From TrEMBL:
Keywords: Cell cycle, Cell division, Mitosis, Repeat, TPR repeat, Ubl conjugation pathway. It comes from Anisodus tanguticus. Pfam families: ANAPC8, TPR_11, TPR_8. This is Cdc23 domain-containing protein. The keyword Ribosomal protein does not apply.
Amino acid sequence: MGIKDNCRNELRAAVRHLSDRAAEQLVGVEQDPAKYTPSHTRFQRGSSSIRRRFRTATEAAFTSTPAAGVSHVATPPVLEDDNEAIDSDFYLLAKSYFDCREYRRATHVLRDQTGKKAVFLRCYALFLAGEKRKEEEMIELEGPLGKIDIVNRELVSIERELSALQKNGSIDSFALYLYGLVLKQKGSDNLARTVLVESVNSYPWNWSAWSELQSLCTTAETLNSLNLNNHWMKDFFLAYAYQELRMHSESLVKYENLQGTFSFSNYIQAQIAKAQYSLREFEQVEVIFEELLRNDPYRIEDMDMYSNVLYAKECFSALSYLAHRVFLTDKYRPESCCIIGNYYSLKGQHEKSVMYFRRALKLNKNYLSAWTLMGHEYVEMKNTPAAVDAYRRAVDINPCDYRAWYGLGQAYEMMGMPFYALHYFKKSVFLQPSDSRLWIAMAQCFETEQLHMLEEAIKCYRRAANCNDREAIALHQLAKLHAELGRSDEAAFYYKKDLEIMEAEEREGPNLVEALMFLARYYKAQKRFEDAEVYCTRLLDYSGPEKETAKSLLRGIRYEMDVEHLPP
């Protein structure tokens, strides 16, 4: 064998070796220690309280039967095209250009290749070349007239070629994925769904195809209408789709079932944390993220959500440690910038916080969290026009982001425009009906002087009270509104309920005093003097004007009790 042949063979082997990638879910499946050495299971060491929690007494059954909710119907592997030269020099050269983002060169190299891999790479390179040009045109033409609708000019030619291949039956699952992507961009959603379903049924391991299919399932009805083969990848898809459709409890159940098989998967743990974050189970979310960081100490993905939890709980030292950690790992990741921005926001340095959110957006202009969090910072800085702009950019990226709609409502409320605020609060509460804060915000909007729709406010506060109102605002406001409307019985009911919760949580404050005062007067008016005396006696423990009022009420109560006992 000559020197040229040796070089050619070595280079071909190098291309293959350097193209190898690891699969996260592959190491997530627990391996049999009897068959594998410790070096093969090094990612699965240690005992985790979280992982143990999802194991049951029937864990042994996993060796013979699948976990509940996880389908294990085998899909035959895709066979390579016999007529296709897998090690084609043209294909390897084009792949090298593709990896260097020289998409036009890759397309040109494969112009005469007809193998399925070559066709896919050529069409995909052409698609990305069109996307790249589209972004360049957007930057060049963006101006004072606002957004300009620019399309990928390569879509028509790609669609024509892939459509012909599909009709001939010579298209593979990857080309079907690309065909679905093109149809989606052209607005043919129904056909795109059909094509993507065909793609994932023939090759279920392509997560990109599943992700595109999910983005076309905007309702539960559409999702349920899909004709999908039973495969464990379908369970991953459904869990993800439920999460995007805000069916968080259903998503959580799916991921917990999947964890029975993929018991060491960091991805599934992170998704469970996301579902619990949406359900506002912050304590559980914090525990999961702490475990994730122990197992994967250089992880940055999803850590911005962890920083949101630490921010909400005002865990200053933990957030400071996390910000320092991601800064040392990779400070130029959008997630890292958002974490550092949260840290400065908690410190009250809002200008510095905005600087880091802006940096995140320079790295990824479509990074949703950065737009929303930057809007919050502008609200804190009383810069409402900038806040409105940031929130609008967020809803442009994802119209289902309830936080951005809520932020818009807050901004317009600050500007004294309750009708606009109410419109945006309604949108946010439609997207997240289980969040008590949104119902309270809408109720407060109804209470404003311009609207003064107290009955509507009462309805909203009732919904908030039924949605685990952790801030304990709804019950107190319900009591006040009923008292204002002269409904003493309803007011007393809510004051008493609020008082019970405050006593259980050992909370003090003006709300407690107000509840005691109202109930003392109410029971005095009802001539239930013993109950009234109990509340008055409790008020004597306070040193403000309420103490004198309580003394006066007690004198009145005792006088009326004496009068009642006088002979006729």
